[in-house]
Write a structure and sequence with these properties.
This protein has 286 residues and is of the alpha/beta class. The chain is built from eight helices and eleven strands.
Length: 286
């Protein structure tokens, strides 16, 4: 399959490109920073420029798109650019896919749409039906992207899967991340004490584009369990209190972000379960 990856030089993107190439796909990586990967085509493309993304899609003859290209958080650029560029770039990608006949798109959203960065979750485990409460311009831009996805699915028949990624980190960063969580579990509770290996995030993207049939819409994607040697239920009660409803399914050290929908739809099961007890970095993985 011919697949175009926007944001291919980013933290998740480089792993997506490598995973797709290893699986035998023809891959075109596009990004503001052109990085060449063995076995893949690379172009310098600004997705906020509609003409550039149209040309990239046309020249690559893409049959599917993994759209990761965006400002990946707040404070990287002014808020007006975070929101404006992310929304414009996402719309451009979706519209170009309609016009050029690309049907399947994986769109990188975020767990920040649930608003846990500003307030405890309404309930756990958090599934895709949890209320959306964007508390930052970055989260707001991703909600707008998901709404645009819904529009293109309904009006043009695209198959867009919005991945609500949480805590995705490259393998080289994960030991330090785990140490930080262990030192102060209250420092970033919006990530629900869970981290996701970028290789797992990449694998989820490949599974989604390869699936014969899959339901459009949002999908949670993260690691399999909390990284601490504590039960998830204990952590939720201690740091979120009585304001968070405890529902069935939060057992042992299972992550409070429920990825059951992704598993049922295209077989996503994280393979790298990093924790304070089990840390590893495969030789040769940057």
């Amino acid at each position: 399959m011919r697949i175009l990856v926007t944001g291919g030089s980013g933290g998740i993107g480089r792993y997506v490109v490598r995973d797709l190439v290893r699986a035998g796909h023809e891959v075109c990586s596009v990004d503001l920073v052109r990085e060449v990967f063995p076995g893949a085509q690379a172009l310098r493309v600004d997705v906020t420029d509609a003409g550039e993304i149209y040309q990239a899609l046309a020249s690559s003859r893409a049959e599917a798109v993994v759209h990761l290209g965006a400002w990946a958080g707040n404070h990287m650029v002014p808020a007006t650019r975070t929101y404006g560029d992310n929304v414009r770039g996402t719309f451009n990608v979706f519209q170009a896919c309609v016009d050029l006949g690309v049907r399947r798109v994986v769109f990188a959203s975020t767990n920040h749409v649930y608003g846990v960065v500003a307030a405890p979750p309404v309930y756990v485990p958090i599934d895709e039906a949890h209320p959306l409460r964007p508390a930052t311009c970055y989260a707001l831009s991703k909600v707008a992207g998901e709404q645009a996805a819904d529009y293109f699915v309904a009006q043009h028949g695209l198959e867009i899967l919005s991945f609500r990624f949480m805590g995705v980190r490259t393998p080289s960063r994960l030991n330090a991340e785990i140490e930080g969580v262990a030192e102060d579990p209250a420092r970033s509770p919006h990530l629900l004490w869970t981290r996701c290996d970028a290789r797992d995030a990449a694998h989820a993207c490949r599974l989604a584009v390869e699936a014969e049939e899959v339901e459009p819409g949002p999908y949670n994607v993260t690691g399999p369990r909390v990284v601490l040697d504590q039960d998830s239920l204990e952590l939720v009660k201690r740091y979120f209190g009585d304001g968070t409803e405890i529902r069935e399914g939060l057992v042992g050290r299972t992550s409070p972000l429920n990825c059951a929908r992704a598993e049922a739809a295209f077989g996503y099961r994280p393979r790298y379960a990093w924790s304070v007890q089990r840390r590893y970095l495969e030789e040769g993985e940057p």
